[in-house]
Amino acid sequence: MKKIVSGKELQDKILESINILCGTVKKTLGPKGNNVLIDHSNYSPFITNDGVTIAQNIESEDETIGTILEIIKEASIKTNEEVGDGTTTTLVLLESIYKQSINFIEKGESPIILKKELNKTLEKILEKLNKQKRKASKNDLKNIACVSAGDETLGNIAYQAMEKIKQKEGIVIKEVLDNKTSISYLKGYNCETTLASPYLLSDTKLVNYKDVYILLLNTVLTSLESISFLLNDILNNKKPLVIIANNYIENVVEEIVSLVLIEKIPIYLLKIEEYGMHTYDIMKDISCITNAKIIENENYITSNDVGIAQNIQITKENININFKVSSKSNCYLKKLKKESKEIDSDLESNFYEKRITMFYKGTAEIKLGAPTKTEWLEKRMHLEDAICALSVSNKGILPGAGISLLQVSSEIESITSADKIWASALKKPFEQILENSGLNYLEIEKQVEKKNYNSIYNISTERWEEINQTNVVDPFLVIEHSLINATSIAGMLLTTTSLIINEHKNNLNKEDEYNNW
Hints:
The protein has helices at residues 7-25, 51-56, 63-83, 87-106, 111-132, 138-149, 152-165, 228-237, 250-263, 277-290, 327-340, 346-360, 373-392, 403-411, 417-425, 428-436, 441-450, 476-494, 503-516; strands at 2-6, 36-38, 46-48, 171-176, 182-186, 189-195, 206-221, 241-248, 267-272, 294-295, 307-315, 318-322, 363-369, 397-399, 455-458, 463-466, 473-475, 498-502. A hairpin with a 7-residue loop joins β2 (36-38) and β3. The two termini are 25 Å apart. The protein is built from 19 helices and 18 strands. The protein is α+β, with helices and mostly antiparallel strands.
């Protein structure tokens, strides 16, 4: 049985959904935005002002509202995926665009025509913003990081990491359950691995070796006979051996562990913490820097198949291989860069960028400290926001706190209904930031207009600053994607006339839950 919701009933449900989601999230916008307490099924309750996290946790028992909420969430989630920030601004814009558009539709405007007009006006808005943007200075980048992180210490760490590594894919965040946060830089190739047995690294958390045998097996190691020559060699000269394979049968692991414990020989059985072709790609990278061949069949292993790692660091979570740059690695890097340009998927593109970065920059490892798991999760979200904001700031920056949108709002010629909607919607982020800070936004807005948009009120310092000298800035791409995604979802909702809910499917899910219980 299917339930169909349409007409005025659907419109009311959409408005209710927008009020629930956008109304909750917009209160967190700005440097003095409010927090939200979230009761999460997988963690202890935690407090956050991260827009996308709050949005993702908002649900409804009403089937219609629940479905609409998932559509609205897409606007903030998409912005977060693309630029890592601006999720709350997206929802503030979406709410205003939709609510004003409904008023015009009720007066006889066509939803289809209005949607097209909104997109046309958006093009003009983006052109005007493009003229406002400027190149970010080092001081701008530091401030962007600190504002996005909501914390000066975290912001500075994010800035240091990006300044050194240049690519966010080359930054790794690790958990440390104390109050200390530190950053270290690893030269060389770093990848996450797991030990086939904890007994292979039982006495220490980290080991370093030079001139280590490396064996790469794109298969399962089922017998020690195939690597007997290697075992004889290391028994004679005590040379460490690192085997990276897809998997190991239990008997092989047990025999190797016995050998390690009895003979005190350093042998490490590792598996790469990736999936599908990513595992093989990482093996290809390691093959390039160690000259080890990738073995597809363990029955045909010879001494010529083994490579040498000049310097390797092994922990229970990853390995780091230092290597000298050679003509071979340079050619391989050029090949990776060429392949990366042909990738369409964001996931694959990020994977390539991480590999490329490690070949010429290495890895930044941030050990993020917090006294509790709950606080650590919150700090990690803000640190990731700062890193993402920095990564998109190289495309230019705009005056922050919503003032760039406010200025464009004053420049729009209100000819069409869409122009009028945008002229009002573009003011909302500016007004919401000030309202959340307990300030009179109407008074400050008058002052900004009086100063011809050449001055901005810094909420954090409670002072007026010149627009070309202010520390309050936003990455251009964050604002651009917020506008685009808000318009996209608002337009989709405006032109949706019916919602079909499969009630039979919902009943089956409830029966499954009951049976599982």
